[in-house]
Every structure is written in C-alpha cells, then in structure tokens.
Write a structure and sequence with these properties.
Layout (H helix, E strand, L loop, with lengths): L20 H20 L12 E4 L2 E8 L11 H4 L3 H13 L4 E7 L6 H6 L4 H4 L7 E13 L2 E11 L8 H15 L4 E7 L3 H9 L3 E2 L4 H4 L1 H6 L2 E7 L2 H9 L5
Parallel strand pairs: 5-6
Antiparallel strand pairs: 1-2, 2-3, 3-4, 4-5, 6-8, 7-8
The chain binds coenzyme A (COA).
Coenzyme A binds next to β5, α6 and α7.
C-alpha cells in the first residue's frame, strides 16, 4: 500500500561531522514534538476510511478505536509465556489500562447492516463504522507512540484475534493500518516483541516482512539472546530507522 512518507527532521551528517550539542537538542525536541502530536490525535482510525470495515473470507466486521479498560485479558496468552506468565500477567494488566495505550478493536456485526446503516456508508467518516447493533469483539491491536534508539516509532504491544477469526486476513489488515498510522505520523518504524515459542506469530510477522531488530537480545549478544524468551521485530520506513533498528549502525 503506497503511503506518502513525510521527511522527519534529522541532523545533516555532511562530511561525517559530529552534530553539535545544539543540533542534538533541536532534533530531540523535534522528535518529542512528533510523538506529542501523534499522541494528541484522538482517533487515528478516522483518517483511514479504507480500514473502517473488512468484508471477506466469511467475515463482516468493523473497526473501532477505544481503550484498554474495555478489554478482559485474552485467554490464550499464557501458553507462549510458559512459567513467566504469572509475573507477565500483572505487567500486561497494567499495560492495558495505561493512558498512553491506544487500541483498535475489530467487532463482528451481530445482524449485519440495516438499510439505514447501508445508506449512511457514504455520508461521512463519522458514520462509516457505526454499527446497527453493538458487535462482539473478535480481535484488537494495542499500540503506542514511543522512542526507540532515539527514533519515534509505533510499538505494537499486543495483537490478538479470537481463534474463529484467525487465518482470514484480519491480522494483516490491522498491521497494515498500524503501518499507515505510523507513516502518517512520521514514525520511523513499527516495532513489536514476540515470544520465540509463539511460532505462529513469528511466521505471521515474517510473512508481513518484519525482521529481527538489531535491538533484539539475540542480535545485541547471541549468548544473552539464548537466555531470552523473546525477539524484537521491526519494519522500518526510512534510511535512518533502517540503519539504527535493522542494520544496527551506531552512527549515521
Ligand atoms: C498471529 C495472528 C495475530 C495472525 O493474525 P491472522 O488474522 O490469523 O493472520 P492473517 O490471516 O491476517 O495472515 C496474514 C498472512 O500471514 C500468513 N500467516 C498467518 N499465520 C501464519 C502461520 N502460522 N504460518 C505461516 N503463515 C501464516 C497468512 O498465510 C497470510 O499470508 P497471505 O498474506 O499470503 O495470505 C493471529 O493468528 C492471533 O491472534 N494469534 C494468537 C495471538 C498471537 O499470537 N498474537 C501475536 C502476539 S505477538
């Protein structure tokens, strides 16, 4: 999907000179401002009408922005965490309701659209994902705008589809939306953490062309990587992010 990627402020590395303290501070300020602006957007989904609903593969669903307090903890998370789950569970619950946590929910129409709703589909963005009956949740993504290696990125904290909705293109659809949100807000990459034991998720992200980040323990130090149960994956959108998050260059 083509996205117009705006240029992020960066320091000129002409002649390979080190940036001055003033330049470093200005850049930091500009990046903080990008994150502040992205967080200030109330509903990112509104800007992407093509992602307000998904029909196909026997599914008819709509997307909706929301908060983590609307969720109960997904039931199928324990398995990939193994013995680390009891401590992880507490962390996950705190993460879910943190104010900086952004959510997009996928809900299934209980009775499909009524005629009135069908007629409203062209009436404007605010009506496009209005359900006739409150649908039931079949999946969600939890994401945040954060700094990684001093770069602004979208970090996907959680992506979950209920078993009956898996393998129907919804996970890919949500990740495409997240990538669009990242680009629109001038973030350098989408990043996420995945448990090594979750081979299904690993295969999914690999299919979506995510790669193991140079910040992942296995790449920072293979020995430490062996002791860790997770990998950090990324998809980058510009040279600077590619260099720092994929290639692991210290300096540009
Ligand atoms: C992992 C998960 C989010 C994927 O979402 P999904 O809706 O089932 O995946 P999709 O149907 O959108 O698949 C997108 C692509 O990935 C591929 N894919 C998905 N799962 C795969 C697997 N286990 N092995 C190989 N390819 C896979 C699909 O074939 C598809 O390829 P295509 O684009 O060529 O058609 C979903 O299965 C899920 O919620 N799993 C349980 C929770 C979880 O593990 N979340 C991730 C935590 S990091």
């Amino acid at each position: 999907m083509a996205t117009a990627v705006k240029k992020r402020p960066r320091i000129s590395s002409a002649a390979g000179r080190r940036p001055s303290r003033k330049e470093v501070l200005e850049r930091k300020k500009a990046i903080d401002e990008l994150i502040r602006k992205a967080i200030a957007v109330k509903d990112h989904l509104v800007q992407f009408p093509a992602f307000h609903k998904f029909q196909g593969n026997g599914l008819s669903v709509y997307l909706e922005s929301g908060h983590g307090d609307q969720l109960t903890l997904p039931v199928n998370m324990e398995e990939p965490y193994g013995p680390e789950w009891p401590s992880e569970e507490k962390v996950k619950r705190q993460e879910m309701v943190a104010p900086e946590a952004r959510y997009i929910f996928i809900k299934q129409y209980s009775n499909g659209f009524t005629t009135e709703c069908s007629m409203n589909q062209d009436a404007g963005v605010e009506h496009m994902h209005t359900p006739c009956n409150e649908g039931h949740l079949v999946g969600f993504v939890h994401y945040r705008f954060v700094l990684e290696e001093e770069l602004p990125v979208v970090y996907v904290y959680e992506l979950q589809m209920e078993p009956s909705a898996q393998g129907k293109g919804l996970g890919k659809f949500l990740m495409q939306l997240i990538e669009q949100i990242a680009c629109k807000n001038q973030m350098g990459a989408v990043m996420l953490t995945v448990q090594k034991a979750n081979t299904q998720a690993m295969a999914f992200y690999t299919k979506l062309r995510y790669v193991i980040s140079s910040t992942s323990p296995s790449r920072v130090d293979p020995q430490i990587g062996l002791e860790k149960s997770y990998e950090i994956l990324c998809k980058t959108f510009d040279c600077e992010a590619k260099s720092k998050l994929e290639d692991g260059d210290e300096e540009l």
